[in-house]
Design brief:
Transmembrane segments: 41-63, 236-262, 274-300, 320-339, 381-398, 404-423
Organism: Amycolatopsis panacis
Strand order of the largest sheet: 1-2-3
Order of helices and strands: HHHHHHHHEEHEHHHHHHHHHH
Structural class: mainly alpha
Protein name: Integral membrane protein
Distance between the termini: 51 Å
Keywords: Membrane, Transmembrane, Transmembrane helix
Shape: elongated
Length: 437
Amino acid sequence: MSGTAGENGETPLTAGERAELERLRTLRQHRERRGIPWRSIGAGFLLVLGCLLAPISLLTVWVHNQVANTDRFVATASPLIQDPAVQTVITDRVANTIFSYVDVQAIATDAVHALGERGVPPNVTDRLQGLTGPLTNAVQNYVHGAVAQIVASPAVAQVWNQALRTTSEQMNQVLSGNSQSVVVSNGEVRLDLGPFITAAKQQLVAAGFGVAARVPDVHPTVPLTNATTLERGKGIYSLLGSVATWLPWVTLVFLAAGVYLARNHRHALVGAGLGVAGGMLVIAAALLIVRGILIGSVPANAAPATGSAYDILVRFLRDGLRTVLAVGLVLALAAFLSGPSVTAVSIRKGVANGIGWLRRGGARAGLRTGPVGPWVHRFRNALRIGLVAIAVLVFVLISQPSALTVLIIALVLLVCLGIVQFLDQPREDHPTSASAS
């Protein structure tokens, strides 16, 4: 009989213990026969590849949008002309170009000599000659102020936007070094100031500074940023543009396949979410490093404009990485909270207890779900899947979702899932009108 001592003094195993021992032996033999876990290796490879491609996909899409989408490019670069540091650089360059063709000091000196030739006494002309210096400074300050107002005016902003549209159309030529308005020269990306000088010349003449008409049709340039990286990237420009449309989808397929092949789907989803979020943090760090390198590669007086221009130009890229970062963290958190860990179980239990407390409070207040409760209970899984699918669809249909959009969608989804949990009541949980006494 079981439970009695054997011949050697050992207690024999019960039937349940023997069954459990046999199960463990079978499991060990199965693992020994299984050999190399190819499925797990394949899942890990796909997940790692997908996480590595995520930041590359974001970069290629951003580059493609800036080059191929004229409206997006104008929206990206349009605020540059409104930045004070950029306005200062353009104002100084335009004013210096005007004074390189209009020598105010020489004009004033010639005027004094002309007065002397017309019989003005020397003591008067000598005094006037002493005023040519202050007069020159006053005129230069006036012109500089007038140019600053012109650069900050809506008219120049329109000229700027039109130049941006032209630049967008010539972006392929920029990367090949043949653009007319934006050129790549000696490791620098330079902006043609011809349209700005023309606008300033016209408005100065209209304001009474007629000598500005002497300025010919010139096209000086100002450096926008260092172009070493841009020049090195010319060879892969066409490749980036072509893969921008399909690389994000390939990345999603790799991640989805990795999660599907993994033996523990939940752990794989957590890893995928954190991996994608980590890739976005790498891009953010790289942007900061590149910004420091660019500012350090230009003269000190151009550093503020370069920093401001860089921040404006990459702001949509930063918005995109924040969005993808939020998506990765939300997916990882959702997968973790649905798992069997002590923390996840405690959180789910606390939420369920809170919803149960609300349900009981509503029942005491006379609130009844009627036939809705049993119906929700019957289709609760379908309702949850449908709510998640709707949340994903809303995210996909939004043209330019932000990180805040992701968080709002996640919060709304949690509220809807909580409502389903609140309404989920089996039929037997509903009190009947007739109760036993």
